[in-house]
TrEMBL record:
Domain SET, chain residue ranges per copy: 8-263
CDD domains associated with the record: SET_SMYD
Designated name of the protein: SET domain-containing protein
SUPFAM superfamilies on file: SET domain
PROSITE patterns for this protein: SET
InterPro entries xref list: ASHR2-like (IPR044238), SET_dom (IPR001214), SET_dom_sf (IPR046341)
Coiled-coil residue spans: none
Amino acid sequence: MASDTPEPLVQLADISGRGRALIASKAIFAGQILLQDTPILLYPAAPHKNLSSSFCSHCFRSLPIPNPNSATLCCPSCSNFALFCSPECHSIALASSHSQWVCKALGLLRSSNPSSELQTQANFLLGAYNLAEISPDDFNMLLSLQGEGTLDGETQMLHSFISAVMAEFPLKSFSRFSVELTAALLARDKRNAFGLMENSKECGERMVRAYGIYPRASFFNHDCLPNACRFDYIDKPGDGNNDIIIRALHDIAEGKEICLSYFPVNWKFADRQKRLLEDYGFVCECDRCIVEKTWREDDEEEDEKMALENEEEEQEFPHAYFFVRYLCPNEECGGTVAPLPPSQGTPSNIMECNVCGQLRTEEEFNRDEDEDDMVDD
Ligand SMILES: C[S@@+](CC[C@H](N)C(=O)[O-])C[C@H]1O[C@@H](n2cnc3c(N)ncnc32)[C@H](O)[C@@H]1O
């Protein structure tokens, strides 16, 4: 019997020197959705001091301004520190992420006032340990992702903090936890978590509201000239608001590897290399890095400009075209733009930015791009 499920557009492959990767299982067209992935674990970033909006502690959607006459749904242990957008989110959270021992640990964490980084890591660990209790399969999936742990002082400190709380709640899954496992979990998080962004219009800069572990999207490797990018729509109504969607930037031939950029595409060579080595453990040798490593650091901006302006140079710098075509023209946005999905085989001429969310026709995009160039000149 024929199946109605469309064949997946990506398949897993092993690539020497790059580990597991996703490659195109057939020819892909610009804008096509390659993958929609649901998180096995979501946890909040440390709260931003200059951000007033609050969000649901289960699905992470923004909460409406509270009506003084309506009762607010909150966690009985965490009270106003954990609010919910609906009775469904409230009851799911009380049966999962807001279990007694997690709430006790969250309370202690708040009173110890840790740095934002430690707080975010502790939020992850609490979510991960809790996952082992409520969904062992998802926990094993988390552990199967890439990353090797290191036993540094921060790991030891986080482990002691959580072990002390766990000692009061001797749940079955806790017996397996060791400092080595804590280190392994933190490494999985560092290598694989995706940040779900705050609405950048509201806070003026790119800030993360929550992080998620997306088991299938975690297999995308990095390229500084990616051929796909990811979108999230955390405040959209309905189910799946914390799914991520990966779309093709342009046509991709069957068998080609599909890569994302792990950070904004307009980062400079030295910053990209540093981040990839420190956080992801590899030296990037993509086409763009091979060209840019020959540039002198103080000339980098000049070289990029020349490559954009001079046709002959453009052939030597194949990535000049990438910025004209796929970098959001909104100043300081740094987002990547991809066409909307094709409709009934017809490519879309509407481009969407994955950071500021702006939609533009190709003509509007080119006009904004030209205006931006005039301001720069
Ligand atoms: C999110 S995971 C991607 C999937 C991973 N290759 C695996 O086997 O599970 C990130 C890790 O993949 C590897 N990786 C990603 N992009 C790479 C690249 N361009 N060259 C070499 N290794 C890369 C690095 O080890 C990195 O820490």
